[in-house]
Every structure is written in C-alpha cells, then in structure tokens.
Design a protein that fits this description.
Rec A Protein, domain 2, three-stranded antiparallel sheet, about 35% helix, alpha/beta, Rossmann fold
Length: about 350
Amino acid sequence: MARKQLQQTTAQMVMDRVNESMKANVVTMASDARYELHRVPTGILTIDRLLQGGFARGRHIELFGDWMVGKSLVLYSTLALAQQRGETAALVDAEGVFNAKWFKALGGNPRDLIMAESENAHTLGNVLRVMIQKGDFARVDVLGIDSVASLLPKEEEEHDLDDAVQPANLARLMSILLRQLTMQNEDTTFIWTNQWREKISRIPGLKSKPGGLALGFYASTALEMMQSDKEMEEVESIHRGAKVKRRRAIGRWVTCTLRKEKTGARPESSASFMLDYTTKKPDVAREMIDLGMADGLIVRVGDNYHVKGYGKDIKAHGIKNMVKKINGDEGLAEWLQLCIEERTAELDGEGDG
C-alpha cells in the first residue's frame, strides 16, 4: 500500500514538474475524466446493441461495405440524435447527396447542421481542424465524412479526364489528415463512410477500400455493412394492358459485422436489420422482435409469438402478425424499446469490467 501511494505521489510530482516547465497542462493522469469511455448512440437498435451502446466518443469510426446498405443512414441518424441531445453536428457531404427532408425524417434539424465544404480535401482538412480545435472554444461533437472515396486530393483538382490519376494521392492525403486530426482531437467523434471496390486483377472477387490503409489503423471501430436477403411481397401491376401479379422487393436485410473494435464490444460479432425501401429506415418492429427474443421479452413457440412481462397479454401467430401488433400498439412499442435500450446500457457497463 505504501509503495502504491509513493508511486502516485511520484507520478503527481513528475506531472506537476512537466506542466510547470512547459507553462501549460501538457500532461495529465489516466484517471482524468477525458479518458472515460462514453457512447454516441446511432438510434438503430440493432447496431447500438452490437456496439454495446453506440460509437465511442472522441474516436474515429469507419462504416464501409456494399452500396444500398444504410451507411449514410447510420451516419445521419447519429448526427440527428446528437442534435437532439443539444450537441453540435457537422457533415462533409463529399458525395453531394445530402437530403434535408430525409434528415428531418430521422429527427435532425438541417438549420443546425454544419455543412463543411472546400475546393479540395487539403483545404478541407484545415476547416476540420478548426472545428475540433482544443481550448475554450465551441467545437463540433459529432463529425461525419460521406465518403472517403469522394474526397478530392489537391493534385487531382484541375486534372483533365485524360490524365492518369494516382490512387496513392488519396492514400497519402488520408494518412496526413488522420494524423493531424487525431493529434488535435479531444472529444469529437469522427464517422467516416467508405465503400468496397473491385480490384483490377486476374483473380476475381478481390476487393479494396479507397483511401489506403490509414483509416483502418486509426479507427477504433470498423463496421462492415453487407447486403443479405431481400424481403419480397406480391403486388398487382399493369403489364401490356393487363393486370398481373408480380413480386417486388420491399426491403433488404443488412448484415453488420464489427471487423475492428477497440472500445469494449466483441470483435467479429454480427447482427442484422431489415432496411425498408419505402421509409429508407430500419424496420423497427423487426428489430424489436429479434432483440426482444434475445432478451426474453418475446417467446416463440412454433409460429406463435408471446410477449412476456408487459401489462397485458399479447399473442400473435406468424411474424407478420407480430409486426402488426407492435406497429398498432404504441404502448407496446415504447415498452419494448425501453427494455431493449436498458439491456443495451447494461451490456456497456458489463464491458467496462
């Protein structure tokens, strides 16, 4: 015990001497509040459960995978929730696809969303560094970059289409940019979206991500989002002057896998949600059924579903009827969501141990 106290006293003395010599608080103890892990929820039940509460604050996050799997959905939902908590959110819309109406539908306020723009990614880096500047300044809490593949290096800004473009330009840019942002960041969560690209090779199926390897090393969490089965329905349509029945996709299941995770959740764990093509959101009722069954809130016997622990007896035959029950009973939906979120928060606490 005495040795432990001596170590603490010595560490304090070293810290005080360094700070006094530098005339600034350049070193601190690991027990400082800034090193405590806090979560930034995405608002998507399945992903928040996978991450044990959401993305870690003050870290780099990479969302990557196929197209049409909800990468921008996860980003925008996280930004919208940050605004609802009274935090400042910013977006680099490098792809030029921001939809204010969709952002509002996710609960965000476009009037309070900072849109970072620049001629090229080099000058954009200077903009981002000011946004996260340390000290007694107002700064951005959650910053999204959509996407890495669309960032324009300065070397390519005035290139003709006939000129050869070097992929190394973007990789070099990302390496420098991430070093600068990481060293100057204190509490801002960076969420980067990226894409799989087919490699030009004699071997089919090889893939790579634009921007080189730097983001993979700097990211504390790398979440891969991949297409899975389509959800189909039968509809009537007109074809060659006659009514015919056809099958169309109403959504697609998306498989999310934690390819890298350094904040407490289990790496290489996976979960799925159904992306509804009409609402462009996850099918929340489906999420509640899956997570409710995992938490013991819903029991399935054969094709029959039974809700346990709710104020009244809820039963349904078949998955479609269970979805209707949840969508038609606001109290049931709120109860399920509250129970699921409470269990997710408990998992985050267990991870801290």
